[in-house]
């Protein structure tokens, strides 16, 4: 799948979560696209380093949980970078990470 299409879908998922869940606030679709882009960039750089380190410490036995936790950290960092994107708590970041993982998995098949 094209990364632009995946970016737009992730932005749509963020907007849907903002509509459904009171702990997520997104100002506009443009903000959602920017947030999705930054989440992707941070996941590819900082997230990769964190995932590798944590997976090495757990001997790759908890790789799914490590990926989920690191993605939640990246989403929480993105919340701090954007003024138009707000999360109520770290638990909300975990929820967003779960939903993005589920949607990404469904669209991969």
Description:
- It comes from Ilyomonas limi.
- Keywords: Membrane, Transmembrane, Transmembrane helix.
- InterPro entries: Phage_holin_4_2.
- Strands 1-2 form a two-stranded antiparallel ribbon.
- It has helices spanning about 5-20, 30-45, 45-55, 65-80, 90-109; strands at about 25, 85.
- The protein is globular and about 40 Å long.
- Helices cover about 75% and strands about 5% of the residues.
- With about 110 residues, the chain is mainly alpha-helical.
- The model has no long low-confidence stretch (mean pLDDT about 95).
- It has one domain (about 5-109).
- α1 packs across α5 and α2 (about 30-45) packs across α4.
Features:
two-stranded antiparallel sheet, mainly alpha, single chain, 109 residues, globular
Estimate the helix proportion, in percent: over 70%
What's the overall average pLDDT, rounded? 94
Instruction: Please give the number of β-strands.
Output: 2
Number of helices: 5
How many structural units, i.e. domains?
1
Counting helices, strands and paired strands, the structural category is mainly alpha
Helix-strand pattern: HEHHHEH
What sort of overall outline do the alpha carbons produce when their principal axes are compared?
A: globular
- β-strand amount: 5-15%
What gyration radius follows from the Cα positions, in whole Å?
13 Å
Biggest sheet strand line-up: 1-2
What is the terminal-to-terminal distance?
A: 10 Å
Q: Unreliable segments (pLDDT under 50, ≥5 consecutive)?
A: none
């Amino acid at each position: 799948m094209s990364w632009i299409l995946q970016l737009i879908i992730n932005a749509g998922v963020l907007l849907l979560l903002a509509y459904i869940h009171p702990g997520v606030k997104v100002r506009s679709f443009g903000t959602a696209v920017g947030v999705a882009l930054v989440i992707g960039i941070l996941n590819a750089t900082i997230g990769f380093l964190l995932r590798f380190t944590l997976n090495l410490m757990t001997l790759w036995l908890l790789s799914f949980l490590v990926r989920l936790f690191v993605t939640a950290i990246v989403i929480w960092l993105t919340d701090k970078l954007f003024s138009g994107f707000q999360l109520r708590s770290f638990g909300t970041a975990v929820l967003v990470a779960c939903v993005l993982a589920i949607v990404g998995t469904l669209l991969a098949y």
